[in-house]
Amino acid sequence: MDAAPTTRLAPSPTGGLHLGNARTFVANWALARQRGGKVLMRIEDVAPTSTTSTWDDDVLGVLRWLGLDWDGPPLIQSAELPPHQEALNTLAARGLVFQCSRTRKELVLVTAPQEGDFEARYAPELRPPQPWPTDPKTAPKGQNWRVKTEPGVVSFSDEFAGNQYFDPHRDVGDFILWTKRGQPSYQLACVIDDYRTGVNMVFRGDDLLSSTARQIVLAKLLGLPLPKWWHVPLVLDEKGDRLAKRNRSIRLTELRDAGVDQGAVLRLLAKWCGHEAPQHIKNIQDFLAGFSIERMPREPVRCTKQDLEQLHER
Question: Is the pTM of this model over 0.90?
Fold first, then answer.
């Protein structure tokens, strides 16, 4: 892409950010700033499971505390829904989406059991009979809208994770595009907001690699350009589980309010990013000066008890 590098920090206000979130945001910010790019802030609050009423402090406040900045005011996703609605209307007019009243529990009952955490697949035989509604304004309310997927592999080259191959039709089937709450799904909102704000650098955890394939499907259906992606491994706890916001000991607000120095947090994040001299970092500019995407670990890193103890050392 020939446009100037533009990325976004896109936190979800479902609780205070934790150290794993911070590592991704700081590395994202540093990569964009090193390339002379813009950094946008986007609060992804569409259809959240639970939204904190203090996200301006839990999210923006702690990121400023770490020293991050961004260009322009934050975009509050739920406050700017017309572009997402327009995309739904476009796909509906082309007969590519349909309404679905099935609950997640109902889908699980008709899906072959799988072990572990999974998303129940919506198979083609579950689609309602045609013709499908082509005008969402006159269609029944209170139902999800799903996009019709086609068999086939979606491939893309990730700038960090390398070549990727997914088949959304096989893996999740017809995924949700618009929720019964009258809001876009994460997949649609992400595609539309990246496009309309000029985002061409997407930096996030590799747990979202499969989501990227779905977003490519939507972007191609809508005729939108694709950004470049950097998907990096997550930070795990000592048991090997991904960090969770419910763990208060790793939440940034808890650390800040306990008097932990932001320099100590940045030094830990730098160590997890493979920084050349994490022990010498005092502020975000020090982090920026020695950050290199080539040194980012290719495997998940562990947040240890010793890591957390060192944060509180004076």
Answer: yes
